[in-house]
Each structure stands twice: as structure tokens, then as C-alpha cells.
Design goal:
Layout (H helix, E strand, L loop, with lengths): L1 H27 L4 E12 L13 E10 L4 E3 L3 E16 L2 E17 L5 E11 L3 E2 L2 E2 L4 E14 L2 E11 L11 E11 L5
Antiparallel strand pairs: 1-2, 1-11, 2-4, 3-4, 4-5, 5-6, 6-9, 7-8, 9-10, 10-11
Protein name: Acyloxyacyl hydrolase
Organism: Nitrospira japonica
InterPro entries: Lipid-A_deacylase-rel (IPR018550)
């Protein structure tokens, strides 16, 4: 019963995520370009932002990044820019694996124009197909996402990255819910359309 309910939630979350990405791209067609695709994996850690998590979480996902048109050169080698991040994957803890989908519509970056080093920070939202993992309750399906990280494109179109990602409902569902903090490591492929 629980497994069938989980599959229904996963299908619903996939449809919502595809709708958000599809409708969003119609309004911005031609104004942004796909930048990279990353395979990402990581784990929860000691939380500097929230109370301690009840379980050790693992996350794995695919991340698609698009560069937004708002950017400014900082000298000859550096740029201040913006990008959009979207991801889909799984979150595992307490012998449960469920879907997680994120959309970070505005991620601000400072980086080298050649991509050798880039720092970014952004805020957005996430949808969880199930918000309860054993005794840990995220509160509800929607979570706010805050992320910051560093990436490096050092081998042609390939590179690595690290992101700290924080999920929280900001007490939308009450004061008894608990978010999560994750350390995520990335293997990144940059498309030719990227800078």
C-alpha cells in the first residue's frame, strides 16, 4: 500500500517538475542557454543551520544548469552572472528511498570566464515525493532550498564541483518539522553553448 502511494506521489512530482521546467522555458526561449549537466551525489552532515537530523541521509540526482542573460564582466578574466538550476533524483534514509526535485530560479555566480573556478549561491524550492523518513518529518512536500558551492572546469568540457544544500519548510507546516543539510559532490559536463 505504502509503495503504491509512493509511486503515485513520484509520478505527480515528475509531472509538476516537467510542467515547471517546460512552461518556464517557453517564456524564456532564446534568452538563456543550457550550460551544463551534472551527476551529483552526497550525504547529510553536521548541521550548522538546523537541529540535528534524525537519520543519515543520502542524495543522488541529475542537475541541469542554464545560464541566464543577466551578467556583467569583472575585468578581463572574471564575470558576475546568473543561472538557473533544476534537478531530479532520490533521497534515501531510514530504509526509504523517495524522489526529490528542485528548482533554483536565480543562482548568482562569480567566476572566471574560462570556467576554471566559479563560486555560486542561490535560493529556490524543492518537491519531495514523501516528506517522512521514519521519525524525521520534513513537514510537507514543498521545501525551500538554499545552496552555495564551487565548481571547476579543468579538463575540456569536464569538471568537478561541491555544493552545500539546505532544505527547510521555514515553519510553513509548523514548528515540529525538521529540514536537512547536505554535502553534494558533482561530476559536471559543460555543453558547447556554455561560456
Amino acid at each position: 500500500m505504502r509503495q503504491a502511494r509512493g509511486r503515485g506521489k513520484l509520478r505527480y512530482a515528475c509531472v509538476v517538475w516537467l510542467w515547471i521546467v517546460g512552461v518556464g522555458s517557453l517564456g524564456w526561449a532564446g534568452e538563456f542557454r543550457l550550460e551544463s549537466l551534472a551527476v551529483r551525489g552526497g550525504f547529510s552532515g553536521i548541521s550548522p543551520l538546523e537541529e540535528e537530523q534524525k537519520y543519515y541521509f543520502r542524495q543522488a540526482d541529475l542537475v541541469l544548469t542554464a545560464r541566464l542573460p543577466w551578467e556583467r564582466d569583472l575585468g578581463t578574466d572574471w564575470v558576475l552572472g546568473t543561472k538557473l538550476l533544476t534537478s531530479g533524483g532520490v533521497l534515501n534514509a531510514a530504509q526509504e528511498t523517495n524522489g526529490i526535485f528542485t528548482l533554483v530560479p536565480l543562482d548568482v555566480l562569480i567566476g572566471r570566464k574560462d570556467g576554471l573556478l566559479s563560486f555560486d549561491m542561490g535560493i529556490g524550492g524543492a518537491l519531495l515525493t514523501d516528506h517522512k523518513y521514519g521519525v524525521q518529518n520534513f513537514g510537507g512536500a514543498f521545501q525551500f532550498v538554499w545552496t552555495f558551492g564551487v565548481t571547476s572546469r579543468f579538463l575540456g568540457p569536464l569538471g568537478l564541483g561541491y555544493h552545500f544544500q539546505h532544505y527547510s519548510d521555514a515553519t510553513l507546516y509548523g514548528s515540529h518539522s525538521r529540514g536537512g543539510d547536505f554535502h553534494l559532490f558533482e561530476l559536471i559536463y559543460w555543453f558547447k553553448t556554455g561560456r
